Amino acid sequence: MGIPTWDFGEIQEDWEAIWDQLDDLNLEGKIVALYGLGDQLGYGEWFLDALGMLHDKLSTKGVKFVGYWPTEGYEFTSPKP
C-alpha cells in the first residue's frame, strides 16, 4: 500500500475520504508492505508522516508488515511520533 504525505504532514484527500473505512476491514493476518512518497529536502518537517499514520492505523488491525527499510541516512524533523 502506498500513501503520499500531503500539505503539512497530512494524508491526501482521496485517502481522507476512505480513512475511517479502514477500521471496518478484517485484515487479521494479512501481509502488508507499505511505501511512502515525500520530499525529504523540501518538506523534511513532514517527510513520510502519512506513511507513519497508515502504519499506526493498520498495526491495530493485526496485519504482518514486511519490507521494513533502515532509517539511517534520512532526516526526520516531524513532531509526530
Automatic annotation (TrEMBL):
Keyword Amino-acid biosynthesis belongs to the record: no
Name the domain of life.
Bacteria
- Give the Flavodoxin-like domain ranges: 1-81
- GO molecular function annotation: FMN binding
Where does the signal sequence lie?
none
Q: Which InterPro entries match?
A: Flavodoxin, Flavodoxin/NO_synth, Flavoprotein-like_sf
SUPFAM superfamilies (alphabetical): Flavoproteins
Give the family this protein belongs to, as stated in its UniProt record. Answer: Belongs to the flavodoxin family.
The protein here is known as Flavodoxin II
